[in-house]
Every structure is written in C-alpha cells, then in structure tokens.
Amino acid sequence: MKVVLASSRGFCFGVEDAIEIAEMAVDSRGQGKVVALGPVIHNKQVVSRLEEAGLDQSGDLETIDPSRAMLIRSHGAGPETFERAKARGLDVVDATCVLVKRAQNVVKQLHERGYHVVMIGDPNHPEVKGVIGYAPNVTVIDEDTDLDIALPYRERLGIVAQTTHSPAHVAKMIEKILLRPFREVKIVNTLCLEVTRRQEAAISLAKDVEVMFVLGGLHSANTREMARMCRESGCDTHHIETWEQFDPSMVKSKALAGVTAGASTPEWVINDFVQHLERI
Predict the structure, then answer these.
(1) Among the options 62, 127, 184, 244, which is catalytic?
(2) pTM of the model
(3) What's the CATH fold of domain 2-10+193-278?
C-alpha cells in the first residue's frame, strides 16, 4: 500500500516543552519525587513512558507530600491551583504551554479592561477550565445552542478561544455573536498556529487519498477535531492511537492512504504505523 504523510503532523513545541520539563524535573529530583496534576499531555504512550521514567501523573493537590514537587501539565491550571500549592508549601514546576499561558493572560487583561469574557471552547477540557479561572464569570460557549442558554446580554464582550479549536468553528461562533446587539465586541486570536497548520495539512491530504488515518489519543481535543475535519472533507477517516487498533477492513479495496497525527502524538508512533501499513 502507498502511504503519504501529512506535511505538518505530530508534536507541537508546547508538547515537546512540557515533556522536556517533566523529564528534567524527574532527573533533578529523582523517581517518585515529582507529581503531575493529571496526564502531562493527552497521549497514553507518552504518559506511560513518563511514568516508567519515574513521574507520578495521578496527583491530587491536597494529598501531595511537601517533600515532592508538583508539576502543572501542558494544559495549564487556574490561579487558585497555584495559590493552594503555595499555601501548602509545594515546589511547583510549571509545564503550561506558552500559548495557553498567553490565553490566561488575555482573559485576565480583558476582564480588567471592563469586558465580559466569552471563551469559545469545550467547557470540560482542562485547558478551558484553567483559562477561565483568570477572570470571574467567564461564559464558555461551543455550540449554536449555547448562545441562547449561556450568553448573557452585555454591552462589551471580549472573546477568546480554546487554542486547539479550528479557525472555521471559531469564526462560525463569532459570526453568530456579531449578529446580536452588543455595543462592543473585542476578539483576541488565541488559536495555536501549529495546530491550525496540522489541520490544514490534514484536510489537503484527505482530498488526495482514498483513506485517512489520524493518529493520537482518543481524548485529545486537537486530534478529534482533525479527524472530524477530514471526515467532513469527504474522505473515509479513522482516528486510532496506534497500529494495534488497526483493522484490515479499514483499507479494503484501497491502495492510497494518508497519515497524520495530533499535536500530542510522538514521531515513533507515526513511524511504526506507517511501516506496518506500507507492508500491506
């Protein structure tokens, strides 16, 4: 089978930085001495490797022993998390993606300037939960129906978005907001350019192949979004984590496959999948 890789795929710099920070923290403090507040990134294979290296990723802030360091994962955390950690005397290692950190600062600044902050994103995503902590009463919307239920009438709105969302989805939601009678709407682009490039490359490739494989964690927001976009382009698309989840029926009667990967997917997972697929 012929396999074509997307021109932009896999690890983004935020993920690479978070993994490096976690590894350095374990190396300098010792195995079992660093506790992360949940998985550092949304990828089971990377999570397993970090745990094998000695990182505990199942920590609860209130139960972490002060002799151990607390690591903030790439998705970030709200200011109350840092305050509680300081009150408990914990050594904090911050692996928050710089673009998530920027979104946090933007939300804080918009509130201080008198805007009611609206975030376009998944309310259950850890990044969103952390970002909205930097201003009181932030409204989170992600679907058209949220506009009637959640969006309050305000004269001045400040709008940001989850960094991993697609520009098309964010633009659609902003268009709906602009149709409403708000006196002022300020939009700050907090989207991750690296994720956008991967989305564009995936859609472009999906138009030229018979089947697309999007590799990455099933809980990874940016990977799920990329798979959805490939399907919407009209290509038969499969979102799987590794070669172990592949089924021969996925490529039945097909000769040309495209492969891409989410921003949390390591290159070794991609290479392993491609090598197996090319043998078919």
Answers:
(1) 127
(2) 0.89
(3) Cobalt-precorrin-4 Transmethylase; domain 1 (3.40.1010)
